[in-house]
Amino acid sequence: MKLETERLLITEFTLSMAESVHKNSLDEDNRRFVPDEVFETVGDAEETIEFLMSVYESGDGPLVYPILLKDGTNIGYVQLVSINDGYEVGYHIAKDYTCKGYATEALKVFLDYIMSEKDLSKVHGICVEENFASKRVMEKCAFIKESEGEGEYQGESRNIVRYVYIK
What we know:
Blueprint: E1 3-4, E2 8-10, H1 18-25, H2 28-33, H3 42-58, E3 63-69, E4 74-83, E5 86-93, H4 102-117, E6 122-128, H5 132-140, E7 144-153, E8 156-166
Parallel strand pairs: 5-6
Antiparallel strand pairs: 1-2, 2-3, 3-4, 4-5, 6-8, 7-8
Helix pairs in contact: 1-3
């Protein structure tokens, strides 16, 4: 897969991205909001990338794609994950690249592609209530707020917000 926007390239992972994936995962927002996506070592990132690359072939697991600037700098990822009631999108932009509209730009093009590819009419977006940046990205991408309240998130009971995007 290769998606392009004016400023970004969304493609498939390669093992050469392990160091940037490791570094991008260490910021405080990632630790706070998605601690299971923190890779403490480059080796941890390599193992995960190997798994994600195998999913491109098998289709069995989360579909996760790196977001690169046009100069090749890895700044984050977008993903589609199967959940109990359909599919959920996710995304992360490394701290040094936030507040520039990259998550919104990437998510918009990714939604169009992945929903067509998987023949989906809707996808969910779920985040913890205090993740204001993530809520704002979903709102900019035309997600509709479905509910807010206590629910399981990352294996813990937290206040979460559930959104839905309908094509």
